[in-house]
Amino acid sequence: MAWGWDEGPSLDEMVVTASRLTDQTLNTTTLDTNDLASKRYVTSDTASLLRDVPGVSLQGAGGISSLPVIHGLADDRVRTQVDGMDLMTACPNHMNPALSYISPTQVGKITVYAGITPVSVGGDSLGGTIQIESMAPVFASSGQDNIVSGQLGAFYRSNGEILGANAIVTLASEKLNLTYSGYTVDASNYSAGGNFKQSGPAALGRGWLDGDVVGSSAYQATNQSLGIAYREANHLFTAQVDVQNIPYEGFPNQRMDMTENDNTIVNLGYTGQYQWGLLEARTYYQTVDHEMQFGDDKQYYYGTPATIPGMPMNTKADTIGALLNAAIDLSERDILKIGGEYQGYRLDDWWPPSGGNMSPNTFENINDGSRDRYAIFGEWQTNMNPQWMSLLGVRHETVITDAGDVHGYAETNGMGTMVNNQLIDSATFNSQNHRKTFQNLDLAALLRFTPDATQTYEIGLAQKSRAPNLYELYTWSTWSMAAVMNNTVGDGNGYIGNLDLESEVAHILSATFDWHTPDRAWQLKATPYYSHVTDYIDAMRCASGASCTAANATTTDQFVVLQYVNQPARIYGIDVSGRMPLGKNEWGDFGLTGVLSYVNGTNLDTDDGLYNIMPLSATVTVTHQLGGWNGNMQLVMAQEKDDVSEVRNEINTPGYGLLNLNGSYSWQKTRLDFGVENVFDKLYYVPNGGAYTGQGKTMSINGIPWGIAVPGLGRSFYAAVSFNF
Questions:
Q1: Mind giving me the DSSP string for 126-140?
Q2: CA–CA dist 52, 59 (Å, integer)
Q3: pLDDT for 265 beyond 90
Q4: In the chain, what percentage of residues exceed pLDDT 70?
């Protein structure tokens, strides 16, 4: 939820000073309200707020559902928290990730841990941790009258004819804060910077799509939040209810589209400062009802004659969580942080019959799925002297998963050209033990040396673990039509689960070199890293089943059916970031910032490239500030992507360079944002955008062309106005 927007009295110093207990490593990036102000209206995708963070890239998805990638590790391999909650994806295509549940205008602060992550903020992940926080609550000063504050805003973006609005209203006294926030957005399909396919009908019985229009990229969403906060001396209690409705979100790299997503979250929190240290507690509950079907740009009717109305797919999930953490001041130099967490996740994924081969029964993709996670950790931070700091931590997690028996649309194996092995596959799955227990151990050791005010050095070692998710374990059908509906990575292929999967375990070595002036007006920071992952969950061409043919095993220019498998992997790379002033005169302050990232990922069994690996990329921004004016000229560059995952027939993408311009002007309580993305309307392809499956006969595995990558956004003008009161 979002709290008050206006500046106002903050919480007591006890909460603010607690930041010294949060183990901020050098490879941590924090974005506050000032950093986020110019980004809120450029995108409706909260994950896109991270696009300039060192080490972070994005896996393409729907217009509000991109998945963050840290050092080549995406989705569930990154721990993503929203207001202290670990929210789970509830979809066989992972269309509703955690960051899709909070809008950009509701975000108050983002903290990204890339690489070595303290065990107090890690867990059940490999790549790092992303923490999203809503606006902090504001209260009236002592003796001040009750305050009413808030913001009204509206925005427009030309590419996709995107219209949206947001509102925040806060009523606050010295001890009580009541805040409502709302956000709504409506977008049509966006256009690329040129024709990437032929113009023509989107699909049988569907409308026309020009050659530059990216099918299935439209979306609509509404978020509403109501929160209450109460403070008493050194104690803060919070309660919030978030409700989201997405009536439609297209996915240009998935076979299906989201046709309904209803989400409700209840989140209760407590923070208290005591003489001995800080205590934090939280409990939360989320329920999600999710529906998929073929959207406006994908073929809806199938069969001969074409009268079968699509393929409805439904998901219902409930998540309950609780955590209790304490940061104890053992001495002037020693801090002990201990805590425990629980998360319970329940999932049902079923596909109602629609006719033909998709009848007469309901297809049970995952039946009575469960994933329970129990975690405890301890972390010891020692400030040995002003020059040396150490951090040691250990975390243990028990993850228990289970699922019930399943059946397909029909208790048969098909016939003729429609052999689908539904009976064989379900019988094989049902005969096995579904209950799995994973014991995961995380370790972290970090040493920091600060010889003076202009340089800091840090080196860290870590072991991090992640247990498989339910879709990696329990999806069971080898039928290509069912398999392509189970795809969390957007590559157009089909995936089959594997009950024999083990937890992924990464051993990471990382160092950070930070050179800067005392005021950090000039800074250069470099973080090289190396990670060896035991039992990395990759994929192999399926060995047996309805779709596991000789052609499937050898083809290099079609979509294929794969099965999840544990294999060793290696990932290494470097992140470089910096800033410097360019000059200050009567024309304003000029500055330069830049980020460069390189990552290399290899499957050590097959010598194949890993999926989701961003090629060498860099962003350079010239900044200008004068009075209420802030302007940026940004150059975004990426190298050709030719080191790809061959087992997936991943598509190469050419290199590119894009120019973005944006500016803002603030006066009194009004702010105007405007700019142009992709100024020269360049046609480019998103390296981690996946395969274009946004139109056509997407139910059939190779009923649509292979080899087209999802293109990026063409030229787009945007403008937004916001008024604070």
A1: SSEEEEEEEPPP--P
A2: 14
A3: yes
A4: 97
- At residue 524 the predicted structure's pLDDT band, cuts being 50, 70 and 90, is very high
**At 27, is the pLDDT very low, low, confident or very high (cuts 50, 70, 90)?**
confident
Distance of CA 70 to the CA centre of its chain: 10
> Residue 60, exposed/middle/buried by CB under 10 A (0-12, 13-18, 19+)?
buried
HSE-CB of 659 using CA atoms within 13 angstroms: 6
Specify if 7 maps to a domain. no
Of 508, 564, 570, residue with least CA distance to 537: 564
Could you list the beta-strand ranges (E) of 294-362.
Answer: 301-302, 308-309, 313-329, 334-351
Confidence check: pLDDT of 430 > 80: yes
User: How high is the pLDDT of residue 19?
Assistant: 39
d(CA 99, CA 8): 27
Q: DSSP string spanning 624-691?
A: EEETTEEEEEEEEEE--B----GGGTPPPB--EEEEEEEEEEEETTEEEEEEEESTT----B-TTS-B
- SS3 for 220? strand
The band of 24, judged by pLDDT with boundaries at 50, 70 and 90, is low
Q: Which DSSP letter does residue 578 get?
A: E
Instruction: Classify 448 as helix, strand or coil.
Output: strand
- Looking up tokens 């926080």 gives 133
- Read off φ and ψ for residue 114, nearest 5 degrees: -110, 120
Tokens of 51: 């696009």
Q: Is residue 579 part of a domain?
A: yes
The pLDDT tens digits of the residues spanning 618-645 come to 999 999 999 999 999 999 999 999 999 9
Q: What is the CATH number of the domain that holds 88?
A: 2.40.170.20
Per-residue DSSP letters for 504-546?
EEEEEEEEEEEEE-TTSSSEEEEEEEEEEEEEEEEEEE--SST
- What's the angle, vertex CA 51, arms to CA 258 and CA 108, rounded to 5? 85
More confident residue, 348 or 6: 348
Q: 399-438 burial by CB neighbour count: b if 16+ within 10 A, else e? A: bebbbeebbbbbeebbeeeeebbbebbbeebeeeebebeb
Across the strands, what pairs with 249?
A: 219, 258
Would you say residue 5 lies in a domain? no
Is 3 a domain residue? no
- Cα–Cα distances in angstroms (integers) from residue 591 to residues 52, 53, 559, in the given order: 16, 18, 47
Longest dimension (CA), the chain: 82
Q: Which residues on neighbouring strands pair with residue 30, listed in sequence order?
A: 111
Q: How many CA atoms lie within 13 A of 89 on its CB side?
A: 26
pLDDT digits (tens, 9 = 90+) for 83-96: 999 999 999 999 99
Q: How far apart are CA 595 and CA 323, in angstroms?
A: 35
Tally the domains of the chain.
Answer: 1
The whole-number average pLDDT for the span 29-34 is 92
Q: What is the pLDDT of residues 353-372, one digit of tens each?
A: 999 989 999 999 999 999 99
- 301-302 vs 308-309, strand pairing mode: antiparallel
What range does the domain containing 638 cover?
A: 13-724
For residue 25, what pLDDT is reported?
Answer: 75
Instruction: Name the token pair of 609.
Output: 């490239």
First to last CA, the chain: 19
- The reported pTM is 0.95
Answer whether 468's CB lies under 8 Å from 407's CB.
no
Least Cα distance to 129 among 141, 151, 107, 114 occurs for 114
d(CA 692, CA 711): 8
Rounded average pLDDT over 360-387: 97
